Amino acid sequence: MRGYFVSFEGPDGAGKSTVLKEVLDKIGPKLKTQYLVTREPGGSKIAEKIRDIILDPANDKMDAKTEALLYAAARSQHVEEIIRPALSEGKIVFSDRFVDSSLAYQGEGRDLGIKEVKQINDFATGKLDPDLTFFLDIAPEVGLNRIQKLRPGQEDRLEQENMAFHKKVYAGFLKVKNLYPDRFVTIDASQPIDDVVNQVIETLEKRLPEIF
Ligand code: TYD
Q1: d(CA 23, CA 19)
Q2: Rounded to an integer, what distance in angstroms lies between the CA atom of residue 208 and that of residue 68?
Q3: Which fold has domain 4-211?
Q4: pLDDT by residue for the chain (212 residues), tens digit each?
């Protein structure tokens, strides 16, 4: 069997990490081959170090292009060291964020341009695209509100950005999902978590029956 690559995207506070964990708790034992759960920025030792630099609230002078290149650098390492080898071994890779986050946050949020940010990411990943991408759709106000309730005073550098930034990021995600309608599936993330989890599982069963 060939490997499959599934990514989870969405604004801050959409609940990606929790949903991903609950989905795999439920379907992990039923999958045909081994699977791997990973995340960005990070996912490998070197990439996690780059993550610390990017998200450190002390780095408030970071230039937008520096930020985009650091995300792409972390991603390159993550792809070469973790994702591509796993896919070559026929594993299923589930990633909490991938290139689409850069297109929305840096391309649209930071005004660098979706096309421009896609180019540096194509260089970083060798044009690796997910087979399927879940967009956990939550209004930016609701997402940030969840984070402030969940871990008050502990927002990372990106989460600390103002509402105008987060609204642009959200608009960016809508543009990106329209660019790739074949691989994007939108799930309403304002629903109770169990419903979100079940809809993700139903979609996986329908779209990638071969992995079960
Ligand atoms: P994430 O790990 O999803 O946040 P958390 O662990 O707090 O849930 O992502 C960290 C932040 O990085 C988040 O605000 C989104 C941002 N980000 C980008 O701006 N560009 C990217 O390419 C990626 C992967 C994340």
Answers
A1: 6
A2: 31
A3: Rossmann fold (3.40.50)
A4: 899 999 999 999 999 999 999 999 999 999 999 999 999 999 999 999 999 999 999 999 999 999 999 999 999 999 999 999 999 999 999 999 999 999 999 999 999 999 999 999 999 999 999 999 999 999 999 999 999 999 898 999 999 999 999 999 999 999 999 999 999 999 999 999 999 999 999 999 999 999 99
DSSP 8-state secondary structure symbol assigned to residue 6: E
Residue 78 in contact with ligand 1 by CB distance below 6 A: no
Ligand 1 centroid to Cα of residue 89, in Å, is 27
Q: Which residue has the tokens 């995207």?
A: 9
- Angle at CA 189, nearest 5°, toward 183 and 191? 135
Q: Mapping DSSP to helix (H, G, I), strand (E, B) and coil, where does residue 79 land?
A: helix
Q: Is the dihedral of CA 48, 93, 169, 74 positive or negative?
A: positive
Query: Which of 51, 105, 134 has most ligand 1 atoms within 8 Å of CB, for mutation?
Result: 105
CA gap 189, 57 in Å, rounded:
27
Q: Which of 55, 97, 136 to probe ligand 1 with, by most ligand atoms within 8 A of CB?
A: 97
List Cβ neighbours of 166 (8 Å cut-off, separation of 6 or more): 11, 12, 109, 140, 143, 144
**Listed residue (94, 70, 113, 97) closest to 12, CA to CA:** 97
The domain limits of the chain are 4-211
Classify residue 56 by its DSSP letter: -
